[in-house]
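Fold tokens
===========
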Amino acid sequence: MSADEIVTVGRPLPTLASVTPADAPYTVLVSWADGARRGRCDRVDLAPVIFTLKVFRPLRDGTIPFDTVRLGAWGGSIRWEGNDDLDIGAETVEDLAEAAMTNAEFSDFLRRNGLTLDAAAAQLGIARRRVAYFAKDREIPRYIALACRHLDQVLRPGR
């Protein structure tokens, strides 16, 4: 029996397979080599990290071009070419990816909870029209995705 079969601690560490700049500011497309999202490809908005920490000021002011983003050593992070101080760990990227929501996931949220557009608007505190947009093709803001995750727990406890 190997040590892998005896001891299991926490969730598997995420490892990135690739990273490329996306079409929106501070957003990347990542694919996962290992971890809970293995085999998936995600569009991840890095703005919550880039606009929170001082070390990322060169990315905010354009001193370092965002499109020089590269995969870090062994897929454990993303970094910016020639700037060893600028890196974001794969676990942080994974957390940001999990906080995001696609339009299909939003539509599934509505179906799963039996919410009409009006009911979802009331629960989320937004206009009915925005709910309809999110169910079709509008980008879903992070705060709406997080609110939906919370509502899933409130409306469907224990699942």
Q: What stands out?
A: The beta strands are 15-21, 27-34, 41-45, 69-71, 77-80, 83-89. The chain has a mean pLDDT of 89. The chain has eight helices and six strands.
